[in-house]
Amino acid sequence: MKAFRRVVICGVGLIGGSFALALKQKGLAEEIVGLGRTQATLQRAKELKIIDSIAQDWADALAGADLVLLAMPVGQTAAALQAMKPHLGPGTLVTDAGSTKRDVIEAIYTHLQEHLTQIVPAHPIAGAEHSGPDAARADLCVGRKVVLTPLEENSPEAIARVSAAWAATGGVLHIMSPQEHDRVFAAVSHLPHLLAYALVHDVAGRANAEQLFSFAASGFRDFTRIASSHPEMWRDICVSNRHAILAELDAYLTELAWVRALLVQGDGESLETLFDEARNARNAWLAGQFNA
Amino acid sequence: MKAFRRVVICGVGLIGGSFALALKQKGLAEEIVGLGRTQATLQRAKELKIIDSIAQDWADALAGADLVLLAMPVGQTAAALQAMKPHLGPGTLVTDAGSTKRDVIEAIYTHLQEHLTQIVPAHPIAGAEHSGPDAARADLCVGRKVVLTPLEENSPEAIARVSAAWAATGGVLHIMSPQEHDRVFAAVSHLPHLLAYALVHDVAGRANAEQLFSFAASGFRDFTRIASSHPEMWRDICVSNRHAILAELDAYLTELAWVRALLVQGDGESLETLFDEARNARNAWLAGQFNA
């Protein structure tokens, strides 16, 4: 018998689709049911054999389900939890893939407080600038970190079974508090996305934007790769986690104020020291040897 | 007979080395002589057959030379021009590969004003985060833009022969004024480098830097790739072109002030519009279809 008889994926894009494909490939799910806002996306996911069938609504989806993955943009979490509530039985585990965790957990406590044993929040660190079911791959999470932020109320069995599902994606599991999670990803993920979007937006708004883009090369391309990410998903992340992101943005603005002063002064020596320290830190990180 | 009998490369790193390899591969140079600050680098370039021999000084290097490429960090340009002056004959063409052009041209007018017909400044848009002779490749410039910023005093023959040398690297030639060059590259190259260095430096200085780096993923890696660039080279670019870079940095800080206000207000709609416009502009650029 397979670990999960019926798995529901709400949001069959990059993350939801990849989770589904991994579970299928590992033989962990007998049946995978898709649910979402857009019929065309669900149809496409079915064509790609990411899901076996399309549920009409939560009542339909949750009948006999033993695992649900919420993989929509985080701004839709509260509405999805509310819609699930009347149909969620005690035997159905729930996890999510949201890039922010405090807001998701707040919504869980607000809308599903009678189900706290069975809902184990998660975040696979496996973004890509492509989105939608066509971008899904069974190996998306292989070797990537998957952060779990379990609730105090979670049953040990729920944690174990949800962990097993995420482990089946090939991800490396880490447990963190939601506060720590949101602070860490504000720094190393959310802020860089915001900076990349802002740079492209700045350049695109210039009178000579066409000329500027025509001379932009590989450095610009890689720096701005994440500015091709899903706008709605990043809107929700920025709104949900704005306090932590503002703290990171302000720290960065302080750094830029210092860099600006060095430029004004033409202080090449200090600039070189800064560049050298940054390069050394980055290279040590890539070599797996960063020690603060 | 080959187009160039004796080519001198001052600075046998990524750019100088790649130029030398391309000229050799195309059969344009009979002999390539290297010159530079660091004997070990020159020896390595000779081992890699990037250069045929090592010159002891400019007197030695320039004897019988018909083309010189200056490919050191731009901060060394003025000193190199001064050192060349006593030994530079009228039959030797000079070009450079500096990432900034106004300062290089100012140094040319200051130090070599009797040789303005024969010095044709250039900038191949072919950076990489790796540097040194081991990173050099004959095809580095293939399909990349090479910007020429000729002097009014350049002879047509000098422009034609220097253009032919750069064309042999596979680069696509463009002519610009040095002012325009420096403004364009401040926006699409110099500023992004500064922003990437600043972000890594900011993260590396945190008390929890090790934790932050441990959760940094592919988005952070690509965003910061250019922060592994050559610190001295980028020090010189930032100091040389600081006025144009400051103008770009200030425009970007204005953009960030706006983004910050949207975050404070939790204005998801405006954030999504900004992200959407940025993504569309970037994707249009990648598809070669950007139209402002």
Describe the structure.
The structure is a homodimer of 292-residue chains. In chain A, helix 4 packs parallel to helix 5 and helix 7 packs across helix 11 (242-265). Chain A has 292 residues and is of the alpha/beta class. In chain A, strands 3-2-1-4-5-6 form a 6-stranded parallel beta sheet. A 3-stranded mixed beta sheet of chain A has the order 7-8-9, with helices on one face. The mean pLDDT of chain A is 96. Chain A is elongated. Helices cover 51% and strands 13% of the residues of chain A. The interface between A and B is large, with 91 and 89 residues.
What is the element layout, followed by pairings?
Two copies of one chain form a homodimer.
Chain A: E1 4-10, H1 14-25, E2 29-35, H2 39-47, E3 53-54, H3 58-62, E4 67-70, H4 77-84, E5 93-96, H5 102-111, E6 119-120, E7 122-124, E8 145-148, H6 156-168, E9 172-175, H7 178-204, H8 209-215, H9 218-223, H10 231-240, H11 242-265, H12 268-286
